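Homework help thread (please don't just give me the answer)

Our assignment gives two proteins as sequence + structure token strings and asks us to describe the second one. The first is just a warm-up. Here they are:
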Amino acid sequence: MPHLAVNEVRAKYGAHEVLRGINLTIEKGEIAALIGPSGSGKSTVLRALVGLTPITSGGVDIAGQSINYKSAAAVRGARDRMAIVFQQYNLFQNMTVMRNVTLAPTKIKGRAKGEVEAEAARLLDLVGLAHKHDAYPDQLSGGQQQRVAIARALALKPQILLLDEVTSALDPELVTEVLDTIRRLASEGMTMIIVSHEMAFVREVANKVVFMDSGEIIETGSPKEMFDNPKTERARDFFGKILRH
């Protein structure tokens, strides 16, 4: 049984169908990278999984349990199991790094402050920011703020981490530090779905590469299969263009 199963999922923005029958399975500990041209539906898949984009048909199962996206309680349950990190870090500027990471587990989840702070310290160390507990976001670089956002998501103890173009808003010299954090999470066995344009990184870290176009999954395979020998003409055209640059 897959850890996550997406079955014939469709979604619309107004009259425009943005997801057109998505089928995807993710195993526990797997790292799946969604790639494809802009507007292909990659980020929408992540948003649909956590209930931010309404699913018009199809379904999603986590560990064999179906998510009823029409139920607010079920959506909250899905967000307990899947945490998403966006392009923009959206940290609370008036709170320290430690407070940003501990706010949701203490206020929303009701966990004990001491336990949460101990876990937050571990996570900040994991993302390379053990020395920044008391700093405020405006004292951090963009890359550091994004790593705090990743620690904040992990503090919710998700089973699956969704990363939506988490390096795209960063200056090029800051990208590496965020990618290094994702590498560390991968080495710890975190299940992740990553939307990324960083093709060299995708090839290195992903177990599965999912190529999307026009709201559909065109082809899925290992990094070697997808980068070296894609089967569909559309995927060959895409990889041919991006790998020449």
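The one we have to describe:
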Amino acid sequence: MRILVTGATGNVGRMVVDELLARGATDVRALTVDPARAALPPGVEVVRGFVGRPATMPAALAGVDRLYLAPHPATAPAVCRLAAEAGVRLIVDMAGAKGEHWQAVEDAVEECGVPWVHLEPGEFMANADIWAPQIRAGDVVKDAWGDAANAPVAQEDIAAVAAHVLLADGFEGRSLELTGPESLTRREKVAAIGRALGRDLTYVELAGDPALQHFTSVMGEHGGWYLDGLAQLAAHPQRAVSTVADVLGRPALGYEEWARRHADLFR
């Protein structure tokens, strides 16, 4: 069974490659824009291409049985049609919450007629890097909507679920919402990072114009959009679901353990 991993040098795609190998997959093809620099593991067939450029896909899809589809809404319809024409028998896509920006990916996958599994992760734990510059500089973290709560998921767990369903049968037609094991407020996340570092971090909440100015300085034109999303989470906290544990048969990675493993991000 030949498996094509698109976005194979991305944050999740590279982990999917490693997870497939760890689970005994022997015919893994990795799609990357720069094979020479990809430094993918021995035994992986590396091909040049990008889901954002459908013209590069036919050669990569030749002989492929199962496809991990990295999210690229603009070209997902074309890539999925090419996958169907190539005889791909399963597409495992990474999208997001239904009805939001990534819905176009799921729609394209379903419309092409190939059996599918949707992976729907919430916020990545790695998004905590928004606080990294402040934590590296001192013990004060300025933020907003400290009571906004969600259940972020580790990218390692997303990749493990992706590899599992690529190799297994019986998941076709399922949408798998992926979260971490607990819902945490932003204050609680900062405190957890502090404990992982052995430091007491002080959370300072901003509101109104100071909050908008801060997030605009960090995220540019997306700062206001991000604040609107935090306001929604404050009003409607995201619950944790057990999908990762149900699929993998082991607990999802907790936030504090994730912070310990990635402490260098904040040092």
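TA reply:
I won't write it for you, but here's a hint about the kind of observation we're looking for: The mean pLDDT is 96.
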